[in-house]
Amino acid sequence: MDNVGIMRIFSCMKNRYDIAIVGGGLNGCALALALASGGFTVALIEAHKTQGSAKTQFDGRSYALALASTRLLSVIGIWDQIAEHAQPMLEIKVTDGRPGEGPSPFWMHFDHAELEEGPMGYMIEDRHLRDAFLAAISNQPNITHFTGAPVIGQKGLGGAVEVEIEGEETVNASLLVGCDGRKSGTAQRAGITRSFKDYGQTALVAAIGHEKPHGGIAHQFFLPAGPLAILPLTGNRSSIVWAESHDRAAEISALPDEGFIEALQPAFGDFLGALSVAGARFSYPLNQTLADQLTADRLALIGDAAHGIHPIAGQGLNQGLRDGAALSEVLVDAKRRGEDIGAAPVLDRYADWRSFDRTTLALATDTFNSMFSNDNPLMRLGRDIGMGLVNAVPGLRRGFMREAAGLTGDVPRLLRGQPL
Ligand SMILES: Cc1cc2nc3c(=O)[nH]c(=O)nc-3n(C[C@H](O)[C@H](O)[C@H](O)COP(=O)(O)OP(=O)(O)OC[C@H]3O[C@@H](n4cnc5c(N)ncnc54)[C@H](O)[C@@H]3O)c2cc1C
């Protein structure tokens, strides 16, 4: 064999992993750490140069993490690093209304005191989560983190898959996981089609400083143009996710901070006193995009690559973490049984496990958004009576809270706080 042949074999061995993950966003990072804790060697391949060290400044982005998601983060060694920055959500108040008119008399109130497990979830800023992930990944010998490494191709090689990174480097693995977001190239290259629905809304996202303390209470106001979520952060700050029509959102985005607060005030109300913008402002066009399949030949999709949903219930990242927890468990169990982790029967178990949850969540977020984002008097009456009913029945109220906390259904081990 010539030198070129020997070099090629050497480079294949060097770049051989159990699992290659394309996309090092939050779901890709969490999955890599979970799989590494289960004894797999992992290539985590991210197009951008590392998005940390975000210790710099708060950029306004934050997430509502369900209680079950925080348990997963504990098992993979992240929660202890970020718990001090997390704000517990002690109560959630949901009301229907019109800007400037105040809430309707029908509303729902969820109080964590009714759940024996504790707070339904926590608010955490993106920078703290991302930094903790990057630090844990750099300390995990089972993970090789490729950054500034856009994946441009993939092909089957019999019992493996070869992933091509721009710049001609390749990585081989028994299984490829597409974690590359709503426009997943990994899914496209595998021929997986996806549905797409534009909601005609843009979410304006920012952290808002306020005069009075929020008391750990999250608010969801259903307004005619779309929902406004006010989610408590540490200190006298809340994160807002404010859905408006694309045109109105573009107008509001173009305003300076003072103009933004003026536009927000009628919808937000004055219950937290004077408001100010506390960080950068973002806008996200809202749509739903669902991959038609979760798996293909030696390929599984997780997170937004599998299902991008409306943020109305703050469940997108939580859903991706559930995908990752289920996939890790299926793969670890398969490895213990001596199965090929990329084989179709193994991947089918993952797809079967996740299909009910993903379909119901997509349907629920879609239905809630269309039911609540309008001013039709009949719809308003119907939804207000529905809210009044849920609020009046303790069993229903607790059911909603357990669902939001991620405690219902066939919960994977990691989300129960157990190791793989
Ligand atoms: C306004 C708004 C508010 C939200 N609030 C919440 C909330 O409160 N709680 C919650 O649970 N969820 C929330 N979500 C949803 C949550 O933000 C997403 O579900 C989650 O961030 C998706 O993470 P991901 O890792 O799957 O995808 P992404 O964050 O899209 O990451 C994909 C990664 O893949 C990389 N990539 C893409 N192509 C390639 C390639 N070819 N090669 C290599 N890398 C590639 C990208 O650079 C990126 O880093 C919200 C969403 C929105 C829009």
From TrEMBL:
Family the UniProt entry places it in: Belongs to the UbiH/COQ6 family.
Entry keyword set: FAD, Flavoprotein, Membrane, Monooxygenase, Oxidoreductase, Transmembrane, Transmembrane helix
Pathway info: Cofactor biosynthesis; ubiquinone biosynthesis
Keyword field contains Transmembrane: yes
Protein name: 2-octaprenyl-6-methoxyphenyl hydroxylase
PANTHER family named among the record's database cross-references: UBIQUINONE BIOSYNTHESIS MONOOXYGENASE COQ6, MITOCHONDRIAL
Transmembrane stretches, start-end: 21-45
GO molecular function: FAD binding; monooxygenase activity; oxidoreductase activity, acting on paired donors, with incorporation or reduction of molecular oxygen
